[in-house]
Prior knowledge:
- By secondary structure, this protein is α+β, with helices and mostly antiparallel strands.
- Helix content is 46%, strand content 15%.
- It has one helix and three strands.
- It has one helix at residues 42-87, and strands spanning 7-10, 17-21, 26-31.
- The longest helix has 46 residues, at 42-87.
- The mean pLDDT is 85.
Amino acid sequence: MAKSEAFEIECPCCGGKLKVDPVLKVVLSHEAKAAPKTIEDIGVGLEKLKGAEQRREEAFNKSFQQMKSSKDVLSAKFDELLKKAQADDPTKPPPKPLGLD
């Protein structure tokens, strides 16, 4: 079996470097591309985290208030539909399906 030199290529997806053996058809090693810094300053990152905590708290309070008032909302909707049902004429036949007359 002929021994050939392994070669390096760059991954088109992640930009990492792959060392490939052409005879065995396997990846011998992989070197990941260095990830860029997501924040420049630790203070800026800390401020973002503090802001995120406040936004989560506001979202929770909004959801909590909606849940507290959901009983009143459902009751008001029920009352409105009940009034509409009582206003309908009970002797009137229901509409025919598909608009057939």
